[in-house]
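Hi everyone,

Forwarding the result from last night's run.
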Amino acid sequence: MTVRRTLFGRPLRGVAFDVAVSAVVAFVGLASAVAQPGGWAATGVGVAMAVALLFRRTHPGAVTVVVAALALVQVIAQWGPLAFDVAVLIALYSVVKYGERLRDGVLAGAVAAVGVLLAAAQTPGVIHWWVTALWYALVTGAVWLVALNVRTRRLYVLSLEERAATLEREREAESRVAVAEERTRIARELHDVVAHSMAVMIVQADGARFMLDRDPEQARTAVKVVADTGRAALEEMRRLVGVLRDAGPSGAGGSVVAADPEHRRLALVELPDLLARFRDAGLRIHDTASGQPPALPPGLELTVYRVVQEALTNALKHAGVGAAVDVTLAYTADAVVVRVVDDGRGRPVVSPAPSGGHGLLGMRERVAVYDGSLTAGAQPTGGWQVQVRLPLPSEPSAEVIAA
């Protein structure tokens, strides 16, 4: 870590350099006090110029005005150009380099041009005055151009630093947004795990209580389903909580990935296991698939899986144990269509299962992410239907999905 030393709120190196420049100008004025025209009065003007130069970085415009006024006094007194008049060039350089507006530097250059003519007219010598004026003009113009070049480079560096700082802030903001979005997605997956699994467990537990005396064997089967569902939910929640603990921003995009090597993404190949669990829970499921399954992005596969899971959970909760459910998965050239229909003729549960939370709203939210459509409603002959159409991406893209 670099510590920048300051004095009066300014970098110490800059203050030291300005003090050295002012000291040189003051020394030149004092050294020539006896020999130069105007004597100590002229020396006072030179020292005043030197003091003004101490503020050339913070107040370049004001310093230029003060130095120009003192130079005008020198011209009026007809002392001619003196050694400490180098302060005029320093002030001109400062206002061009440090001035807030370049207009101030242009104005100072015009004033300096007038001063060149007056100084040439008062310079004693045997050569023509215009030759002296040309020499003064060349020196003054060179100083002005050098200052302009330094100003341009300084502003360019400042713009690069500002742009770099802005990009860094944007990267940090994007990283925070990416982490927040990923954690929101994981939280939604946690909701699905808890809501669906608890719904199945509540229905089965009520059924076991109802059948405990009438059919102990069926009650034992229901209790086994409760235990298996609870274990599966606990395992998936363990993985998801592990992602929340181990996930962090990675790379320029700030993606969140799972550090747990056991972490897996739910995919369509796991649909048979999902259907088997709901069959064990008491639903009579008939599943069909048509078309050639394409290679789907992980996020789209997860959406299909969660839609089927949500629809079957709703069927178990509302249609009841023993309801017949048709699950259809159709692959077309441009979309995946999921259709889940129950007949609503299952055995009513002992007590209504509590709502899983977001239900159809959660499904609609997932489907909207992929510009899909969802249709849900009661069947004229009884029961409920859920149909989802998810357009296929034009080019399969790799996605990082925490599920």
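The CA atoms of residues 181 and 334 lie 28 Å apart.

Cheers,
N.
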